Automatic annotation (TrEMBL), chain A:
Residues 135-172 are annotated as: Disordered. CDD domains: R_hydratase_like (cd03441). InterPro entries: FAS1-like_DH_region, HotDog_dom_sf. Pfam families: FAS1_DH_region. Signal peptide: none annotated. This is MaoC dehydratase-like protein. The lineage of its organism: Bacteria, Bacillati, Actinomycetota, Actinomycetes, Glycomycetales. It comes from the Bacteria. Residues 27-120 form the FAS1-like dehydratase domain.
Automatic annotation (TrEMBL), chain B:
InterPro entries: Fatty_acid_synthase, HotDog_dom_sf, MaoC-like_dom. Pfam families: MaoC_dehydratas. It comes from Stackebrandtia albiflava. This is Acyl dehydratase. One of its GO terms (biological process) is fatty acid biosynthetic process. GO terms for molecular function: fatty acid synthase activity. It comes from the Bacteria. Residues 8-114 form the MaoC-like domain.
Length: 172, 133
């Protein structure tokens, strides 16, 4: 179970990161985007790493091996610009219980160096219940809920009981 | 433009090579998006696309329709089903955008469906495109 005391809590703002042409071009090329645009989903490559401190915090109780990416939202307050530097502030917005599983909503404010709001990025993670049925794979359990979810990072590691930490893929 | 009007319909192919490129670009190196054994160990039929890859394709369809990303103010998706990407052939995802609602300020709210075979993979997915200034 996630620690409910964290609801409303904010992580410190991340060190500003430059939006480089190279990073955007690689992201766009992977999606087959050839128009020279910044993909509207590009900020995911910044917002999910920004929540690392939360995932690493044992007191919060988030087991990434039981997590599926369920929902994603981007509110763009103004266009992102190449060459600007932005920072991310992650907040634990909500934890809901659905059929014994938990839905965690993380809300990340992306701001420019002059504090101008750039975007609000919300990520909903489905956290499968632990306990007696833990041997069942997360992917299978995800299908039991009305809306299943994309399988994120930890899932493979969790179901396979891999010794690898369930990291490296928070952006799923 | 009226509610229910179809705005765009796009077929996209996703290959294993695309997923490798996206893993590098996004930082999501989860092996279930690249390795069949890892995917099967997680209870999946095989390698699946990143949910954010499919959402990225939906975003691409909106971007191309709008002539750029600048007027896209809202973009949302729920990941309903995984897109399985075989090793030897691309998976196909079809994205269809229709007018959901016209806002008083001229913005268009678009409802999108993304399907792969018989599966709705994003359900629902939406975008709001501000009026051209």
């Amino acid at each position: 179970m996630l620690n409910r005391a964290y609801i409303g809590r904010r992580l410190p703002a991340t060190t500003p990161v430059e939006i480089t042409e190279e990073a955007v071009a690689a992201f766009a090329a992977a999606l087959g985007e050839t128009g020279g645009h910044i993909p509207p989903t590009f900020l995911i490559s910044l917002t999910l790493p920004a929540s690392d401190a939360l995932i690493d915090d044992p007191d919060f109780g988030l087991d990434f091996s039981r997590v599926l990416h369920r929902e994603q939202r981007f509110s763009h307050h103004r266009p992102l610009r190449i060459g600007e530097r932005v920072s991310c502030t992650v907040q634990v917005e909500d934890v809901k219980v659905v059929a014994g599983n938990e839905l965690l909503t993380l809300r990340t404010e992306v701001t420019a160096e002059d504090s101008e709001p750039v975007a609000t990025v919300s990520t909903v993670l489905f956290v499968a219940a632990g306990g007696d049925d833990e041997e069942q794979s997360v992917a299978a359990r995800g299908d039991d809920v009305e809306q299943s979810a994309d399988v994120t990072p930890g899932v493979a590691a969790g179901a396979a009981r891999s010794p690898e930490p369930a990291r490296g893929g928070e952006a799923s | 433009m009226n509610s229910g009007d179809e705005l765009f319909r796009r077929d996209f192919e996703i290959t294993r090579a695309d997923l490798v490129a996206y893993a590098g670009a996004s930082g999501d190196q989860n092996p279930i998006h690249q390795d069949d054994d890892a995917a099967r160990a997680a209870g999946l039929p095989g390698v699946i696309a990143h949910g954010m890859y499919t959402m990225g394709l939906a975003a691409r369809a909106v971007t191309e329709w709008a002539g750029g990303p600048e007027r896209i103010t809202e973009l949302t998706a729920r990941f309903a089903k995984p897109v399985v990407v075989p090793a030897d052939a691309p998976a196909t995802v079809t994205v269809v955008g229709t007018v959901r609602r016209l806002h008083d300020d001229g913005a268009v709210e678009i409802a999108m469906t993304a399907t792969s075979g018989a599966d709705k993979v994003l359900a629902p997915a939406r975008a709001t495109v501000a009026a051209a200034s």
